[in-house]
Amino acid sequence: MFRFILILALIFGTIAPLPAQAERLRDLGTFQGVRSNQLTGYGIVVGLAGTGDDSLEYLTQAMHGVSGRVGVQLPPGVNPALKNAAAVIITADLPAFAKPGQRIDVTVSAIGKAKSLRGGALIMTPLYGADGQIYAMAQGNLAVGGLGVSGADGSKLTVNVPTVGRIADGASVERGVATGFDSGASLRWNLYQADFLTATRIRDAVNQRWPGTATVVDGATVSLALPADPDARASRMAAIEMIDVTPAEAPARVVVNSRTGTVVINSAVRLYPAAISHGKLTVRIDESPQVIQPAPFSKGQTAVQQDSTLGAEQEGARVVHFKPGASLAKLVDALNLLGVSPPDLVAILEALKQAGSLKAEIVVI
Length: 365
Fold this sequence. Notes:
With 365 residues, this protein is of the alpha+beta class. Helices cover 20% and strands 35% of the residues.
């Protein structure tokens, strides 16, 4: 009884609203064009201890091309030792304002039947951008955190992922990407999450310090008038990124993971008056068949006699009532104390939505 009173107290308790917190603009968005760019390339890892690809046609062609670049011409029809090489895909992120000669990290992943890339070395490979141009050259020894071994009887042992490696500072930048930082009279600021109220607050905060320099383009973009001089422009951008702005409250939303039963509720969700009654009915059937043997010399036959035991158990359903404005998080805590399972909790939330007592968007992932 005391526990039930405590649960009701949790539901009836008033929820103090959390004060809004100001955040820096650099945490809410970024300048348009000032971003990283993805690079990819196709290459060969050599020096493997018999853990490379078996016999891939495109690997053989690539090995012929590599040998040709170093002045060794393999005769037609000659198949190089593929067990010591593997075809790989190289991926990297080219940071904004990267200049030729700078180094970036690369990730190397096997695309064929290679068992492990441990101990391998990546041969010089060009990295391409989305426009098909070469922006970096990658080469170096791989650092592989995984391990894979196998025995003659077919037994295998794998630790982590041995077919993916990384090369720190493994690529040299050959070409930079234009960001538009030093061109145009204005630069756009893009929010990570579109919200008109947040965009207008950013505009007001910037105009309060530099009047007439910020205008709202849409719910995710604010146009900023910046000085033409690159040094003054960089100083203005640095100052803008450090401005504190209170973002708008997130919309009321309940996220339900249907596979794991996880329910995530943000602080904007509130409940309207409602009463919830939830109970469980468990039906159990036990089958205990018995074998009956005939009497000796009776010429009878062995028979099976069915013995069924049926039982039904229903937990006492309790009705829970909550006041207007109660936090949904408190309701979830109360239902958890009552022993409601995640699937039942999802059913209750959906029923509250249908009844009009839950004014929030339910997202099922």
